[in-house]
Design brief:
Length: 344
């Protein structure tokens, strides 16, 4: 009787507590499930944040790439001989070699060319356009001479070191225009080169191209070449020096880009101009004037837009590269040797 009673007692006890055990068991199961769900949700949230950040970063770089592509469409032309676009690495390496040659030839030259040597060292790594894309600062793509005054525009009357050359060009504007009208005739069009532009057409006729005199071209405009050759500051014996007639047709856009160096000042003598054609340098706008010179440092980001109709006709200028006025004569001679025209 005792055994039976105990058995019945335990059985009754089990029946009494089993719903509680089941309830506690289910609660534990649910708690575990809830914890796992919370952990999984944290993983999902974290994964979502990571995915969002990845999409944001990818979108940013795609947008930036498109912006760089748009802004630098002209910054890399297809001319295999272009110092700025294609041969900058070869030019930089060659310049370092020629600097060491110059030091061996003239043992007393190192003191006068210290900032050239320092600049060559710092230019051993090419400065890409995208690095300074957001800033209105100079970013010369080949040679950046340190300690030069970084000014976007030069007023014709503000620097006496350039004033004499500007006077010569402006006083002889009619002679230069006459030569331009001659070379712009249909029978001479094969001598003109066409630069790449996103829209429209940009043609150039070189008298000096990257330090090389274009002998056949100057035969057609000898008076202009003679005038330019006598300028005190004309840059004509190194790869950065050019003298060129430039024609931009209506509807043409020259994308924002950087020049190869900060050692030159680009001088544009207006031959045929109109208000609809605009030069932009570091966000500042300028217009050419017929018979007047416009001077700027093309190491800064710059571009051109011709918004005029076909009736307005093309904008035509003579471009002459002048030495930056802060460069000494000793430095000029050294740079001419170090950056002498390629293949010389």
């Amino acid at each position: 009787m005792t055994v039976v009673s105990l058995h019945k007692s335990h059985s009754a006890n089990f029946k009494i507590h089993s719903p509680i055990l089941m309830k506690n068991g289910l609660a534990e199961v649910f708690r575990v499930i809830e914890c796992k769900v919370k952990v999984n949700m944290m993983y999902i949230y974290a994964l979502g944040i990571i995915v969002f950040l990845c999409i944001f970063v990818i979108a940013y770089f795609i947008k930036r790439k498109n912006k760089i592509s748009k802004i630098t469409e002209f910054s890399a032309c297809r001319n295999p001989n272009c110092v700025r676009c294609v041969q900058y690495r070869q030019v930089t390496v060659r310049a370092c070699e020629r600097y060491h040659q110059l030091c061996q030839l003239q043992t007393d030259i190192s003191d006068a060319t210290q900032r050239i040597a320092k600049s060559l060292t710092k230019n051993s790594l090419h400065s890409t356009t995208s690095q300074l894309l957001e800033e209105n600062v100079p970013n010369p793509l080949v040679f950046d001479l340190k300690e030069l005054n970084p000014t976007e525009f030069y007023e014709v009357c503000s620097d006496v070191r350039l004033a004499a050359d500007i006077t010569v060009l402006e006083e002889n504007k009619d002679t230069i225009l006459s030569d331009f009208l001659n070379i712009n005739k249909p029978q001479h069009q094969e001598r003109w080169l066409r630069n790449d532009t996103p829209e429209g057409q940009w043609r150039v006729f070189h008298l000096i191209n990257q330090g090389k005199v274009m002998e056949e071209n100057i035969k057609l405009c000898e008076k202009t070449f003679e005038l330019v050759s006598k300028l005190q500051n004309v840059m004509k014996r190194n790869v950065f020096g050019n003298v060129v007639f430039s024609v931009i047709n209506p509807g043409t856009t020259i994308s924002t880009h950087y020049g190869p160096t900060n050692i030159r000042i680009r001088c544009h003598l207006g031959l045929i101009t109109m208000d609809e054609c605009i030069l932009t340098v570091s966000g500042m706008h300028r217009k050419w004037q017929t018979g007047k010179c416009l001077l700027f440092n093309d190491a800064f980001p710059h571009g051109v837009t011709h918004l005029g109709s076909d009736e307005k006709g093309p904008r035509c200028v003579l471009i002459v590269d002048l030495w930056h006025p802060d460069i000494t004569m000793q430095e000029r001679n050294s740079i001419d040797y170090i950056f002498s025209p390629v293949n010389e």
